[in-house]
Amino acid sequence: MMGAMGSFDVLPDSIACLILSKLESAQMVAQCAMVCHRWKTLARLVDTLTFESFKLLEKKLDKNRNASCLETIVTQMLLKTHGIRILKISYHPVVWPWIPNDYFSEDRVCQWLQHVNTTLERLTLVDPNRARPQPKKLLHLTDCKKLQWLNLCYGFIPVLPASPGRFEQLVTLHLDLILIYDSALQTLVELAPILEDLKLNSCKGLRTPHFTALKLTSLEFANDMDVATTPITMVTVNAPSLVSVSLSHVEELVMNGFTLQNLALLWHVRPNIRELPVLESLHISGESWALDCVTHLIRLGTNLRSLRIDAFFERKYPIQLQSLLRHLQELVSIHIGADFFECLQTAGGAGAAFMRMHAMVLPRLENIMVVISCGNNNCISVLVSLLKCAPALRILRIDAENLRKSMDNVMFFSNLLGLQRDYPQVKVSLACPQTLL
């Protein structure tokens, strides 16, 4: 132990501060500061602090375990430091949902921000305040001229202050469980001219947000309907550099898809997109989908490399495999969910003449995953079509966990063994109920 202490003592202050900044929580930094006078001095020079109520207040199980208790701890420690680059302050109330009026005071938060406004680069603030807006807090945030990464959790942003500053260096903005209205979101995005990454997780108050972000490359609306309760009617985005979009519980998306490479949609999105010339990954899942929306997106994605369809459709109709996929010459991986496979399966042998005239080849396809609920001959026909068209295929995974005992399903296993013999270069893996084996 003494040897370890001696080794640490010979380190220069810059290295010692870097080590202290890597500690998991501010509590550990405070404990180190109590070791000796040098460590107390070094603790004031750390540039990273994390305050988590679950860790700092874990031994206080009485009614005093509240936001004001954490405020005191943060204030006593933070204001002794000489400059913080990365700051995380998270208060999680004991009672869930949060206790009324149990959140940080705006004046106290402003005091913290004022102390770090010349050095702060990354901020995470979990403050369970939805009782009233805190405009002064937003003003002090714009005073943090080096701020590049901001994550706000809980809070109320109905409107922004009349004369706010700008987030000149802000690249990443994540809002979790924030009550924010359309106009406030639009203004907030406009105040961040180089914003590249915008994520909104289960934010209430949004109905038809419309915003312009010239540098934005990644956009995510991750709505948990247990929290948000109401889907967003429409999202309209003017972002000419947008590369990745992920939306859930958004009824309609309006955007220009010319630069989009990754698109993930959950729950019944009606995409209003004219072209997707460079789209590489398309992931569609969830309920209440219109089948024509899905087929429209697939047909737009001429350069797709990864296609995953886990959607459940309101109305199903037969889809001819070749007519839907033959243009996907760059496709490497495909995942076909149960409802989508049923539509392909229902088409069965129909369109045989079309298949002979328009032979499908997917030269780069290496991985196929299908989910089936009925093992009849049409199912085998679809699998045969996929195997024939993919000379580079290495893996075929079949999820047949929902198969039930029937003559068709018993024959399915025999036919599948035949496919394995005919295509020995393909590794076929099968998951199914033990009762059928």
Q: Explain this structure to me?
A:
- The chain has 437 residues and is an alpha/beta fold.
- The protein has a domain at 279-347 and 361-436: Leucine-rich repeat, LRR (right-handed beta-alpha superhelix), CATH 3.80.10.
- Helix content is 32%, strand content 22%.
- Helix 11 (291-300) links the parallel strand 16 (281-289) and strand 17.
- The N and C termini lie far apart (61 Å).
- The relative contact order is 0.05.
- Residues 349-354 have low confidence and may be disordered.
Notable characteristics:
Leucine-rich repeat, LRR (right-handed beta-alpha superhelix), 16 helices, alpha/beta, 21 strands, 15-stranded parallel sheet, 22% strand, elongated, single chain, 437 residues
Q: What's the topology here?
A:
Elements: H1 2-9, H2 13-21, H3 26-33, H4 37-43, E1 48-52, H5 53-56, H6 67-78, E2 86-90, H7 106-116, E3 122-126, H8 135-142, E4 149-153, E5 156-157, E6 172-176, E7 179-180, H9 182-190, E8 197-201, E9 210-212, E10 218-222, H10 225-228, E11 235-238, E12 244-248, E13 252-254, E14 262-266, E15 270-272, E16 281-289, H11 291-300, E17 306-313, H12 321-325, E18 333-336, H13 338-347, H14 352-357, E19 367-371, H15 377-389, E20 395-399, H16 407-422, E21 427-431
Parallel strand pairs: 1-2, 2-3, 3-4, 4-6, 5-7, 6-8, 8-10, 9-11, 10-12, 11-13, 12-14, 13-15, 14-16, 16-17, 17-18, 18-19, 19-20, 20-21
